[in-house]
Amino acid sequence: MNDLTDITFIKRITIGNTNPSNPKDDTEIEKQIQLLNRCLSEHPKGIIIGQEKDFQVIRIGEHQVIQQSTTYHIGFKRKPTWLTD
Predict the structure, then answer these.
(1) Domain for residue 69, yes or no?
(2) Residue 9 lies in a domain
(3) What is the per-residue pLDDT for 28?
(4) CA 4 to each of CA 9, 35, 40: distance values in angstroms, whole numbers, following the listed order
(5) Count of structural domains within the chain
């Protein structure tokens, strides 16, 4: 169990589509997943301290499209030097 009082930096990483007018392709989503995995595996290792789930139902003509995204809050004891905003 990690102590949350040690957390000094939080990075939010969103995986999925958040803008209906600009959908992300599979390569962009894969880059998001790679960043999440890097945050959880490389030094200094982060931990997931929170999560947001969002979805939107969009009607395009007769069709309905559902866009989903999950935002992870990754806490670090200090900001990783390899992490750029």
Answers:
(1) yes
(2) yes
(3) 93
(4) 11, 22, 16
(5) 1
SS (H, E, C) 33-69: HHHHHHHHHCCCCCEEEEEEEEEEEEEECCEEEEEEE
Q: What domain range includes position 43?
A: 4-76
Contact (Cβ atoms closer than 8 angstroms) between residue 79 and residue 7: no
**pTM to 2 decimals?**
0.86
**DSSP tally for the chain: helices H, then strands E:** 1, 3
Q: Which residues contact 64 (CB under 8 A, 6 or more apart)?
A: 57, 58
- Whole-angstrom Cα distance, residue 56 to residue 46? 29
Task: Give me the pLDDT at residue 58, please.
Answer: 84
- Mean pLDDT, contiguous 10-residue spans, the chain (85 residues): 84 89 87 96 94 89 88 95 83
Say if strands 47-60 and 9-16 run parallel, antiparallel, or are unpaired: unpaired
Does residue 34 lie in a domain region? yes
